[in-house]
Design goal:
The protein contains six helices and no strands. By secondary structure, it is mainly alpha-helical. It is elongated.
Length: 161
């Protein structure tokens, strides 16, 4: 019984230690960037999740330690304090840095071709494959010919041996 308690205690300690070591989401937001108004800060965090760090590529500006990401976080907060809506803040940042700054690009303008290219290429590839398979099936049938009488006699002779 004593051994069981020791095992259970060791297991509990191991579990607590493993949970403590699990990687937590990294937040690069510095204390001097945090807004005093919790509602504005929550909006800033929400907007930051959708903006790409231009240095780190596939990291949002909230998670990036790059100087440019810090500048973008400060810019977002400045625009919110100035009274801009979420859409106006995003529009301002996109106007300034281009659509690449969005982690989820829009499907308007020239981007629709990028969104449609994958499915269109799949449909095109399936069409080409179907055409190839259909043509290959016909070619095999056209190439088949019945044995001539001479060939049939020779085959019978070989099989009889």
């Amino acid at each position: 019984m004593n051994r069981l308690k020791t095992c259970a205690s060791a297991l509990a300690l191991a579990l607590v230690c493993s949970v403590a070591v699990l990687p937590a989401p990294v937040q690069a937001v510095q204390p001097d960037e945090v807004l005093s108004d919790p509602a504005l800060e929550a909006r800033a965090r929400e907007l930051s999740k959708d903006l790409r760090c231009l240095v780190c590529r596939n990291e949002n500006i909230d998670e990036s330690n790059a100087d440019l990401a810090r500048d973008l976080r400060v810019l977002v907060r400045e625009r919110l304090v100035a009274g801009d809506s979420n859409g106006e803040v995003i529009d301002f940042v996109v106007e300034r840095y281009g659509e690449y700054v969005l982690l989820r690009p829009t499907t308007t303008g020239a981007n629709w071709m990028l969104w449609a290219a994958g499915p269109l290429m799949l449909i095109l590839a399936l069409g080409v494959a179907a055409g190839y398979m259909r043509g290959r099936g016909r070619a095999a049938k056209e190439g088949e010919q019945a044995l001539s009488d001479e060939e049939q006699a020779r085959l019978s002779q070989i099989l009889d041996e």
